[in-house]
Automatic annotation (TrEMBL):
The keyword Repressor does not apply. InterPro entries: DUF423 (IPR006696). It is found in: Membrane. It holds the Pfam family DUF423. Keywords: Membrane, Transmembrane, Transmembrane helix. This is DUF423 domain-containing protein. It is a multi-pass membrane protein. The keyword Lipid biosynthesis does not apply. Its main location: membrane.
Length: 128
């Protein structure tokens, strides 16, 4: 499981760098400043959670069940939160109907909060 977490964290981080460069160099020609700021928010939160996954992989005190739950919440949260932000920020460049994913951003954000809460509760439950 820890190998999977490290690989996922590394992949999500790499993808955040690629998307950040894509936004900074290519999309700035086609998007309004507000849309670029929105896109960058997706990149920033994706990178935060890449680091979170790498940190998570170092935690020896977490049970396998807690580790898997936090991992799944984080990955699903990044996909829904950052993914929907990318689609919403670039909606005028595609034929994608943004009404389809209107709830994906807050649901993704909630999953990310649950992942952090899962880590907090797991550590809190441990005896010092």
């Amino acid at each position: 499981m820890k190998r999977r977490i490290i690989l996922t964290g590394a992949f999500i981080g790499m993808l955040a760098i690629i998307l950040g460069a894509f936004g900074a160099h290519l999309l700035k020609k086609y998007l309004a400043v507000e849309q670029l700021v929105t896109f960058e928010t997706g990149v920033r939160y994706q990178m935060y959670h890449a680091f979170f996954l790498l940190f998570l992989s170092t935690r020896k005190e977490l049970t396998p069940k807690a580790l898997k739950t936090i991992y799944n919440l984080t990955v699903a949260g990044v996909i829904l939160f950052s993914g929907s932000i990318y689609l919403l920020a670039t909606k005028n460049l595609t034929l994608f109907d943004s009404k389809i994913i209107v709830f994906a951003t807050p649901v993704g954000g909630f999953l990310l909060i649950l992942a952090w809460l899962g880590l907090f509760v797991s550590i809190l439950k441990q005896k010092s």
